[in-house]
């Protein structure tokens, strides 16, 4: 697995709701993706209940820090439905069927897809939303900002026709 793929997979784990599995994997994440050290160091010394409460506060209470990429482009409009279908189509073209509990544009799912396939198109097409999310996370001082910093830094340059 190329180093960016490892980073994308590690970032996906860091951006999901924290549980015992995340805590058990922290030493591996620290070793495999040193770009995420700010977050992994924080998670290693923070009680799980506090991590979970912080995750809910940051990501679940308002769309201000939405982990759903199409929300940044489409908001809560009808157009978002077509964007979600497009995510599923991209997964299918790569031989994957999206069957998660989350919507197909959920950032950890997109990061895992990118890690597995090497296809960065969904991330680069939504770079503007990722950058806005990164800026907002940094402004609120959460360790999750470091995860988005690493993801954004690893993305290839935008290609012509990318969604903005």
TrEMBL record:
Keyword Ion transport: no
Keyword terms, alphabetized: Nitrate assimilation
Matches recorded under InterPro entries: DMSO/NO3_reduct_chaperone (IPR020945), NO3_reductase_chaperone_NarJ (IPR003765), TorD-like_sf (IPR036411)
Top-level lineage group: Bacteria
Name of the protein: Nitrate reductase molybdenum cofactor assembly chaperone
Lineage: Bacteria, Bacillati, Actinomycetota, Actinomycetes, Kitasatosporales
């Amino acid at each position: 697995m190329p180093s960016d793929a490892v980073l994308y997979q590690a970032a996906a784990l860091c951006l999901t709701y924290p549980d015992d599995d995340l805590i058990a994997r922290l030493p591996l994440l620290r070793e495999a993706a040193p770009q995420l050290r700010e977050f992994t160091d924080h998670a290693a010394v923070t009680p799980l209940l506090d991590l979970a409460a912080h995750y809910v506060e940051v990501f679940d209470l308002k769309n201000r820090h939405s982990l759903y990429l199409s929300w940044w482009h489409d908001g809560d409009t009808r157009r978002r439905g077509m964007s979600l279908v497009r995510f599923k189509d991209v997964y299918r073209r790569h031989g994957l069927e999206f069957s998660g509990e989350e919507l197909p544009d959920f950032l950890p799912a997109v990061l895992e897809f990118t890690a597995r396939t090497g296809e960065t198109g969904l991330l680069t097409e939504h770079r503007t939303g990722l950058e806005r999310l990164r800026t907002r996370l940094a402004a609120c001082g959460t360790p999750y900002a470091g995860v988005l910093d690493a993801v954004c830094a690893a993305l290839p340059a935008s290609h012509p026709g990318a969604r903005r």
